[in-house]
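ENTRY TYPE: paired fold submission
RECORD: A
CONTENT: sequence, then structure tokens
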Amino acid sequence: MKPTVRTQIVPLLGFLMAQIFISHAGGAEAPPTPVAVEANVRGSYLLGSKAVSQTPKYLGVCLEVADNAERSNLGDWLADSGAQMVRVLHPDKDVRIVPASEATYKQIATKSDFDAFRARLLADPEKNIPWSNYRFDKEIPWLGIPDVEIKKVIQAGVSPIVSIAYGPQYYPGPLLKAFTEEIQAKDENVNWPAAASAYEYYLANVYRYASRNGVTHFMMLNEPNGGLKNIQQIGVIARMGRLALEDVRAKLSDKSTAAGLRLSGPACYSNSEEFWPYMEPYVDLLDCHFYNPDPDMFTRQYTRTTMRAGHTGKKVAFTEYNRIGGPLQPDQALWVLKPALQLGALTMAILCSGRAGDPGCEMALLYEFQAPATHRNFKSLVYGDMNLIDWTGRDHGLNGESSEWYPSFEELQIRFATPAYHVFKMLSRCVPGAGAGVESYEVLGVGESTRGFGEVWDKDISNNIYKMLDERKYYALGGAGPEIRVLAVRTPERLIITVLNPAPTPVKRVGFDLDYVKEPYATALVRETSLNRRDQVIAQMAVTGKRVIVDLPAESMTQIILIKEDLTKVTELKFEERTVTPGTIKDLGLYQTTRLCALGKIGERWLDLSELNIAWSSSEERLVNVYQGGLVERVRQTGKPVVITARTLEGGLQISQTVMPDKEGQKLAPSGSLVPNGGFEQTVANTKEAVADWATGWDLGLSPAKGWVAKAGVIPFWERSQERNHTPGGNACLKLTVDPAKKRPIPNLAAVAESRRGFEIYSREYKISAWVWRPAHGGLSEGTLSMEVKFSADRNAPPVHVPLKNMADLPVDQWVQIEQILPVPVDASRLQVSIAFTGEPKQAGTLYIDDVNLKGD
């Protein structure tokens, strides 16, 4: 039995007024006797009204190996993740086809020569930049096609930051003719041919993607080596980068893109302060990398980094972060819940380390989004084919292997999401991104009560309160230690409270006090990622008081989302498909994805409920999966239709969408008739054939042909006859003889599966048909031939009755096909076909039937 989740909102100084139980096992619990609120919670957190810190503008990810971006499912996964920014064109590659040479720039000897070169390029960048020497629209190993990767990222609604990656090694000579002690090199010491090469490279990147795609963010190179001479040369590159960026800004007709242009870098792991004096005049963001599992270490480094950058009003950026730099063991991978929650704690620290009023943090990008990747195996949020993963513990990257290990399109198709993916997705709701119109969200102060966390009540003596002194006392008193982390983020429309409980024990009845929250929130939603849940909504309630009480599962992240809309007023649901990949709900191939949004109508407004109060489900989740945000993916080839359902947690509204088999899946559906022995070629004579596994009264009847059974105790009107035949190569059919004088019951006959174990049904619509011959002499002239189809999936469901033909309407002395389409429940696993003759003919007569068929339409 799954655990019961109990969530309440009650006034702070009163009695327990409301309690909501959600039992995933369907069992009911008796409500507890009302008690005083203070005695009814373990402890509580008080939310302040003022911002004490601010979030970054963007929370995002780093991409590697974006081959086949146009036809892969990468775009849908990026959109579903909630990432607002992604680093692209990494690992660093020279995108020139022919590397820069001294001969190419030999005419540029002085600063004046450089200015003339620059002016010529800017006179008409579309013509004068040597585009034919750049691989922007060509396949680059381990990168894919840069133009395509950037286009698909933007289509997914994510802002790219383009890694330009130009380093001193991209030109055969140094960028300085003389290395001096000066921070900014004088013009006479600059090697202008080398500088011109750097300028052109930057101009080509920035102009192409700013003018064509509206890209605003660019970064220098990734983790360059230190050393004074190298740093000084990169300083010259930064100067050229700033010139190129400002030149593009002046050329752009889109003023919004022009105003948003930013240059970051170089991205340093531990030596950013060595580079900063040489970069600061030219870049907008001090760019760092951070790898450490301790969230407090991030806060300390962030404080120091912002001191350096903020001294001149610059923001900071973290274009890589994760728990551990370098290789990892498989048990440290993010599909293990504990490391996933550690990453959640680190990300929570990133979201609240910026002090309100400071220049702030522009972005924090998680390394790494997907595997297979070039460098690492165990840092990714999502995975494609895991056969490419190095499971030895050496964590060998694919880029160090032979060409046979280059991943194929199918191997790169993402199909597995780690728990960390859902943790990241929950936290991505706490950051504005480009479309919110603000630079950051407010992080509110949170005060923790002493009792319940720092101190706990003794279970035996209620007046005693103990400090948690050791592990034994901690567990004896039910957990709830200082490891719990709480992040309260206020957006213009919502209040999002995220709670991390990494402890191995659940913490019951934790209160969140809203005394100083003035916004008129109407609905509270609780979502959870834990051992058995993935960003799943578990509770919805009206906000009527000043305290929210939530149970925190062991090793979990819980998120309380307070919104201003009253979701009890939703009157209607509808789907909207928003895929950016080749797969659609109507044609979804293996590993293809699509995204369904569940929109709810409140008054005249449609609100996206997909990640609020919608519970998503699939009728065959191991064949076609749906994640708790509406991302749909076919993970196994099948001929079955699969139903995706979106249901509101409260209110009883529900909509469904059927994912039909694709072309490959249709090949798996059985061909031919599903009716055994529909041509009546196999004989059984008069043996009795029991079918007691169907509780339909067809047991112990006499069989005219194999697989066909009459009602129990009925002397059959039907017989297998060789007088006529319609089956190609056959010699038999079924003969019906009616004689009113013999006063027999209505003739009826059923066909069941020969295997007795049933067969799978692959289509929601079937065509049932039969061939009929009515003799001119002695043929039936009254009564109706009909068929019934029953389903094993639901024996309470009424059978589908299919009237076929009145005898008087049938032509004589010829085979006539009669057929009709009928619906079959999607969960049916077995069918039973019955042939019946109804009516009371007044004279005797015969009828021949052959090739009874039931086949998916």
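RECORD: B
CONTENT: sequence, then structure tokens
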Amino acid sequence: MAQSTIGRPRALTDRQVEIILLEHVRFIAWKALGQSLKSQRQLAQELGVSQGTIAHVIRILGHYKQVSPDGRVGEIKRRSGNFARLRIRGLL
């Protein structure tokens, strides 16, 4: 890449320069994507909850309180089956 023999010795190799340029391209792409994403505060306002609630859900990876109303019937059936198996084995 570099052809000049004048001046100070290079601090970076050609490979390191390539890495810097690739990382810069990735950063520019990430920055452009970031402008289209919502902040936690914006998402909280849209959903009608606090920003702390949004942060909490992210921190616990979605294991938020109890089962949602959509999956409640299936979860109740699953748990009652587990309890029945435990009763049959004499563990309850």
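NOTES ON RECORD B: The mean pLDDT is 83. Residues 30 and 36 are 10 Å apart (CA to CA).
STATUS: closed
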